[in-house]
Amino acid sequence: MIDSAEPSSLDLERDRRAVARARAFVRDHCAQSQVAEGVCDTAVLLVSELVTNAVEHARSRVRLAVAVSTRRVHVEVGDQNAALPAVRHPDAAAVHGRGMAIVDGLAEDWGVRPDGRGKTIWFDLPR
Fold first, then answer.
1. Angle at which helices 37-53 and 17-32 cross, to 10°
2. Where are the alpha helices (DSSP H) in the chain?
């Protein structure tokens, strides 16, 4: 197993293909690090939600980083918009607005780190 002290990173353009590229990047990194399939599936789902938010709401390029250790999978998604995300609980008929609630419900831990150009949202999953 590869124990990654340094994250692998990927810069993504602001377009719909960014989400598919992000999912493939996370899935490949999990496979190389021999992360359990269920944990990998959850990481892919969560990164999909965060990259979609960055593309649709932040309207900026996206910085993605993945680090896998013996204890956890750590993912960071950064964008160039300083607006902080909110966990919403929309009604059953709503089409949008569940992304951060999904992250909040499935991640072991998550948070937001504002920076000079925007923010980075991160999450951890146990191995």
1. 150
2. 17-32, 37-53, 99-106
